[in-house]
Amino acid sequence: MANYIGTVKTSYGAVRGLEHSGRYEGITEFRGIPFAAPPVGKLRWKPPVDPAGWSGVRDCVSFGPICIQPTDGDLDAEPWATDFYYMGSPAMSEDCLYLNVATGAAKAGEGRPVYIWLHGGGPDHGYAYEVEFDPRELARKGIVVVSVAQRLNVFGYLALPQLDAEQGSSGNYILMDDIKALEWVVENIAAFGGDPDNITVGGQSAGTGKAASLAFSPLGRKHIKRMINESGLVWDRKNGQREQVEQDCQRYLEALGIDPNATPEELRRIDPYVFLNRSTGARLPGTLICDGNLVPDLSMVDSTERYGVALDYLSGSNLGETQMKPGANRSQVGFTSAEEFYAYCKELLGDLYEKYDFPSLVSVTDETVDRESRRLASYGLHDGARMGGLTMSRYFGAHRAQVAPGKHSFTYLFSRVAPNRPEDYGTSRDPRKLMSWHSNELWYSFGSLREGTPPARPWEAVDYRLADQMSSYWANFIKTGDPNGEGLPLWPASDESFGFAELGDEIIGCSCKRKLDEMILEFLASRHVLPV
Predict the structure, then answer these.
(1) Which value, in Å, is the radius of gyration of the alpha carbons in the chain?
(2) Alpha carbon distance, N-terminus to C-terminus of the chain
(3) What is the C-alpha separation between 186 and 219, in angstroms, rounded?
(4) What is the pLDDT of residues 56-92, one digit of tens each?
(5) Does the reported pTM lie above 0.85?
(6) C-alpha pair distances (Å), 380 with each of 106, 391, 395
(7) Which of 296, 487, 503, 491 is closest to 408 using CA atoms?
(8) For 300-446, where are the alpha helices, taking DSSP H only?
(9) Long-range contacts of 270-279 (CB under 8 A, 24+ apart)
(10) Element at 232 (helix H, strand E)
(11) Residue 229 and residue 304: Cα distance in Å, rounded?
(12) How far out from the chain centre does Cα 284 lie?
């Protein structure tokens, strides 16, 4: 007989969750819990407010609607369409401020560590309960997982002078939603068996920006102990200046044929789907504004130095999500010959090419050039590098070892190429093109892969083993700040030794600063990419 946590009383009313069986017997999921009032009507483009309370017990066994968002070019693009969104898009609505809790606790007050998950998808799409985010394996390993929805695109970022006049400051609604969710967690999570004093926030891709912004907000500084950044360290990113962001938002409205000087009341009467007309080609709003409070600094370097040194970090990137060859996107084969590769690197590196005797340092053939060039790109060696990839994360760890001794930094490179079906070769799902594609690691870090999930992946024994290892690493880090644990290959810390782990068919730890690392560091410094 399973020992479930049963009905839980929150600040706004009692909730009943979905009780699992089989492998996940003892795990309860509470889906679609409102953490704020629906941001519709008069609350569109307003800071979130408390949800209405309810009497009796609310059945939380179904997910809430996702934020209204575009689907063309995003949810229907490969490989994500077939891997993540093969079941079609859930119902969309402005009424989207819900969170989900997965717990294995038998009673309140057990004090389990809490993981707040903020999804990726750029600033304009994605949702909190995508199939690859299945929280049950982490919950089985002792974590209380909270996945949070927030307003996206124009609904989460619109900033205009008339909204400033109405409420003092506009924009940043997406961050306000995440802060509101964190308030809910701090107030209620003990009832689900979680510890409000042991919170890790994490995200992937655009979710890393959400996680960092939340951690550095006034409330986050008080309550968040750790951060997980998958495909995005965020350390070197910039926030927007109000005047520029508001001008961009005005131009967006003009492109839609909407008067940018319309009153807030007039804007709130417009059908929400009008704001997502993609035929104009205009870019959706998606920039946080430095307001000196919720977003304290223009540069995330400054925010990290002021507020982030007390955190533990786990960060990494995927082998295949970045290209070295200019103009090649991440779903294409890049270089096809060693000659082309070396000629490009000589131009890219300039004097560093001879200084480090690059052809001796990096050996490629026509057969290996695509994979090895992408490996170098994942390290941070590519033109226009805004981020340093693996090298940036390792350098960040070495820096933090000096400024925050005793705090942990761990870095990974995910290199497993997920198994494909024969019919995928020669298509946009060709593993030779995608390699370890952007977001691929989520099946493993959540331990969410299953036979038949997704139908496109014929998972192999190595995938199940790696998923068990990686989800255990993640669970250990959420608990203690250190991913290492019994039965797991050693993952060296990123400190003065520049340690990292390659998470692939085998797990390989490295604790040394190599000549290649020195060259890439010097390259990044020459491009003014290294923040410190």
Answers:
(1) 23
(2) 56
(3) 10
(4) 999 999 999 999 999 776 678 899 999 999 999 899 9
(5) yes
(6) 45, 6, 11
(7) 491
(8) 300-303, 338-349, 351-355, 358-361, 369-379, 389-403, 431-434, 442-445
(9) 272/44, 272/68, 272/94, 272/155, 273/68, 275/153, 275/154, 275/155, 276/68, 276/69, 276/70, 276/153, 276/154, 278/70, 278/72, 278/73
(10) none
(11) 14
(12) 19
| Closest among 213, 184, 199 to 308, alpha carbons compared | 213
Residue 205, both tokens: 């891709």
The strand order across the sheet containing 18-19 reads 18-19, 28-34, 98-103, 144-148, 112-118, 194-204, 224-230, 312-318, 409-414, 500-503, 507-510
Q: How many CB atoms lie within 10 A of CB 191?
A: 21
At 73, the amino acid letter reads G
Counting other chains too, the contacts that 479-488 makes at CB distance below 8 Å and 24 or more residues apart are 479/113, 479/142, 479/143, 479/198, 481/225, 481/226, 481/312, 481/407, 481/408, 482/312, 482/408, 482/410, 483/314, 483/410
CA–CA separation, 32 and 478 (whole Å): 24
- Residue 23, classified by CB atoms within 10 Å of its CB into exposed (0-12), middle (13-18) or buried (19+), is exposed
Q: What's the rounded Cα separation, in Å, for the pair 208 and 222?
A: 19
Query: Residue 390 carries which DSSP code?
Result: H
- Intervals of the chain under pLDDT 70: 1-4, 73-74, 385-388
The residue type found at 428 is S
| CA–CA gap between residue 63 and residue 30 (Å, rounded) | 9
